[in-house]
């Protein structure tokens, strides 16, 4: 018997995420402020130390980027729990630093990097072909075709891997299994995920225009929308 494939509804998913912004803005912004303060603190510390020791300054910069990355992953966790109608508090974002999740997240992003690596190399190949002018005018078109293939491939893999982070965060699944489940859940949904991503991007840029006031709603929406995408795709795997 042929397995049914769930198709994520674009409009309904965004509408459901928007409704969940109400009542969650305070918590989400408490988490966002922690990220902004950490970003400012590490930036100031790196600048101060770099003037005395360039190497130490760059080490601090790397440590800061690493911590900021995990804090932002923690915000995704808040978005997932909000999408599931679970109570959220800003301190839940720090759970990503617990050993059972910390190393799984690192492993997941190492695997994702390896999956993306051929496309990254393909993009560099396109730039090198264009830069070397290997075949005159033909090099431009060859480089363009190769580069576009790498971009399309990157977008495709981004959509197929999108909820793997959510699976690790929510279910504590091992990285490879999370990637397999993400590929399974996102079947027939690549264009829908591209559409949702573009709409969210447009909403984000529009929210910046009126003195950034719209960010009060749009930034929490981004994380809650991710949670809603994860929740709906994951619970419908194999449906």
From TrEMBL:
<feature type="transmembrane region" description="Helical">
    <location>
        <begin position="101"/>
        <end position="127"/>
    </location>
</feature>
<feature type="domain" description="DUF7847">
    <location>
        <begin position="111"/>
        <end position="212"/>
    </location>
</feature>
<keyword id="KW-1133">Transmembrane helix</keyword>
<feature type="transmembrane region" description="Helical">
    <location>
        <begin position="215"/>
        <end position="235"/>
    </location>
</feature>
<dbReference type="InterPro" id="IPR057169">
    <property type="entry name" value="DUF7847"/>
</dbReference>
<feature type="transmembrane region" description="Helical">
    <location>
        <begin position="139"/>
        <end position="169"/>
    </location>
</feature>
<feature type="transmembrane region" description="Helical">
    <location>
        <begin position="190"/>
        <end position="209"/>
    </location>
</feature>
<keyword id="KW-0472">Membrane</keyword>
<protein>
    <recommendedName>
        <fullName>DUF7847 domain-containing protein</fullName>
    </recommendedName>
</protein>
<keyword id="KW-0812">Transmembrane</keyword>
<dbReference type="InterPro" id="IPR010380">
    <property type="entry name" value="DUF975"/>
</dbReference>
<feature type="transmembrane region" description="Helical">
    <location>
        <begin position="55"/>
        <end position="80"/>
    </location>
</feature>
<dbReference type="Pfam" id="PF25231">
    <property type="entry name" value="DUF7847"/>
</dbReference>
<feature type="transmembrane region" description="Helical">
    <location>
        <begin position="29"/>
        <end position="49"/>
    </location>
</feature>
